[in-house]
Design goal:
Largest sheet: none
Strand content: under 5%
Shape: elongated
Helix content: over 70%
Number of helices: 4
Number of strands: 0
Order of helices and strands: HHHH
């Protein structure tokens, strides 16, 4: 009888360890994918900041701080949205063509979202027309960034289609 209890306890413990390991592996996978996306999305805030600074020849330290803050807020929103998208982890099931179509569509949506956020945050720097910054940043660059994000996430997940 005591032997049966020990076996059942061992089986239960073994099952819990497997579940915990599966959860940890999934969390590590998502962390790796989102860290990669985060690093790639830094280009978005750098482009917004550098383009705005150069386009409007901003030299005032307060205005530069506000512009940088706006760029970081936009990058943070994109990071949040991309992480939520990656949690669905449906990208591993897509063919290369489907993933290209998907990442291009996401790029268009995020490009327009950045433009909308620049309109929203323009109140912080009313002397400048912040949405005009996007006239200098190409949609093709966003397509490249989001293609790298989604194909990189699929590669990290271990699915090399």
């Amino acid at each position: 009888m005591a032997k049966d209890i020990k076996i059942k306890n061992f089986e239960a413990t073994s099952e819990n360890i497997k579940r915990e390991q599966y959860h940890t592996e999934g969390k590590n996978l998502l962390d790796n994918q989102t860290n990669n996306a985060h690093n790639l999305l830094k280009k978005v805030w750098i482009d917004i900041y550098q383009t705005g600074k150069n386009m409007y020849q901003i030299t005032d330290s307060n205005e530069l701080f506000i512009l940088e803050d706006v760029a970081h807020l936009i990058e943070g929103k994109l990071n949040y949205d991309v992480k939520n998208d990656l949690t669905r982890n449906h990208i591993i099931e897509k063919s290369d063509l489907d993933l290209t179509t998907y990442s291009d569509a996401k790029a268009v949506g995020y490009y327009r979202a950045v433009l909308a956020m620049l309109y929203q945050y323009n109140i912080q720097l009313p002397e400048y027309d912040l949405p005009k910054i996007m006239d200098k940043i190409s949609l093709d660059e966003y397509k490249r960034i989001f293609s790298e994000i989604y194909f990189g996430a699929r590669k990290i997940a271990g699915d090399m289609k």
